[in-house]
Amino acid sequence: MLYIHQLNHLTPKMADLESVYLVREFKEKTPFPLQENLLEEVFAEFSVSESELQSINNAITLISPTIEEVKALLQKQSSLYETINLQRTIQLLKEIPLVLVNNARYLERIQQWQATSPAAMASLLNKIPALRAAHEKMQTNQQIKDLFAFLLRNQQFMFLAQDIVHEGPVAQINGLAESMEKGFFFHISLEEEYNKISFDTLKSRIPPAELEKFTVIEQNIKLIKKAVDAAYQANMRQVNLAVVLYSYVKWLTQK
């Protein structure tokens, strides 16, 4: 897409802008009536994979024990750790399960729909140029509205993402993962901060047992980050699919 790069970028105006080059391409390269195999190729680009859903569901089960592992470090009240950073990590991780659960349910429904959608979409789209009677137009228009409401999770032509993975959770978990690489949990002295001592160097003063616990948590956070990223990218593909379908409707309405 030329203009839509985030979930919240989708609006009717932005879809219209994106559709200009898509409609031009359809007119030049797409035979009518639309064939099911063509739409299968289109949908394949935006499909939800089993590996994505597995990554998301695995992360959901991983978050609670990871929180408990961070709490165990916090309860030690050790000067080795930066208490505020442990608390921040716990709070951030607590905010993720619900959006991931909601996202998994949404993507599972999308996956089920995509298994049969090419045939249904070919039938629906091919009707558009021949519509004449008012009741037929109203019926088809409602089918199209219902389609976009399903894809975009609401009745407006915008993607409803507040309760699933959107830019906020992505930024938070990415920030946490990056901080973990710099030893986020451990207390750093003013002298170490001033001299910009790397975490690799600081590891030499951290007891191996504590470093091992940190490493386990860090690996868990990386897996959670991977799942959040996967959910976001899958959501973004549905936004892009909505724009493509919008462009098909626009093209065939003009036909």
Describe the main β-sheet briefly: none
Distance between the termini: 24 Å
| Radius of gyration from CA coordinates | 24 Å
Poorly predicted spans:
none
Number of helices: 10
**Percent range for helical residues?**
over 70%
Helix-strand sequence: HHHHHHHHHH
Average pLDDT reading: 96
- Kindly estimate the percentage of residues that lie in beta strands according to DSSP: under 5%
Q: What's the total number of strands? A: 0
Question: Which structural category do the helix and sheet elements fall into?
Answer: mainly alpha
The rough form would be described as elongated
Q: How does the SSE layout of this entry go?
A:
Blueprint: H1 12-29, H2 36-44, H3 50-75, H4 83-94, H5 96-127, H6 134-152, H7 167-180, H8 190-194, H9 199-202, H10 208-254
Helix pairs in contact: 1-10, 2-5, 3-4, 3-5, 3-10, 5-10, 7-10
Describe what this molecule looks like in 3D.
73% of the residues lie in helices and 0% in strands. It contains ten helices and no strands. By secondary structure, the protein is mainly α. The mean pLDDT is 96.
Give the key terms:
mainly alpha; 0% strand; 255 residues
Summarize the structure.
The protein is 73% helix and 0% strand.
